[in-house]
Amino acid sequence: MLTATRPAKARNTTTAPSPIVATYGPAVGRLLTAPLFLLSGIAKLSDPAPFLAYIASVGLPFPTLALGIAILVELLGGALLVVGYKTRYVAAIIAGFTLATALVFHTNLADQTEFLFFFKNLAITGGLLHVVAFGGGPFSIDRR
Asked: Which sequence ranges are marked TM in the entry (predicted)?
């Protein structure tokens, strides 16, 4: 007589992060990521001309509007990322922005600098998707 056997339960082979990493890691990660966007937004706001020319050079319509959106995403998104307000939504918006930047501005993969910028943007997008998945952590406004 044939009998059905239950499949073996999958064992969890991962370990939980240490309490220190779980407590402080998300805030440190946000604080290390946000300055990239804040400083970039400040640079664009301080001297928009070269950025407008660069945006126009890739053929995007309405370079002024595109620059305004970039400044808004970088400054507001970076600041909200620092304090951890609406962290998952903000990280998703910045991730989309960063991925779009890679796909629009860093497509000449034969150029080593563009190649590195493209994959740097992909890596940043990946890190931001971790924030989307796991949230801002205990040291965020979201956790009040």
From this structure: 21-42, 62-82, 89-109, 115-141
CA–CA distances in Å: residue 40 to residues 19, 29, 70, 134: 33, 18, 9, 25
DSSP string computed for 26-82? HHHHHHHHHHHHHHHHHHHHH-HHHHHHHHHHTT-S-HHHHHHHHHHHHHHHHHHHH
> What distance in Å separates the CA atoms of residue 121 and residue 119, rounded to the nearest whole number?
5
Count Cα neighbours of 138 within 13 Å in the Cβ-side half-sphere: 7
If pLDDT is split at 50, 70 and 90, which confidence band does 110 have? Answer: very high
Reading the block at residue 84, the tokens are 């951890």
- Residue 116: how many other CB atoms lie within 10 Å: 12
Distances from the Cα of 140 to the Cα of 25, 44, 61, 62, angstroms: 12, 27, 37, 36
What is the pTM (predicted TM-score) of this model? 0.86
Residue % of the chain over a pLDDT of 90? 85
Which of 70, 62, 63, 65 has the alpha carbon at shortest distance from 45? 70
Give dist(CA 114, CA 103) in Å, integer: 11
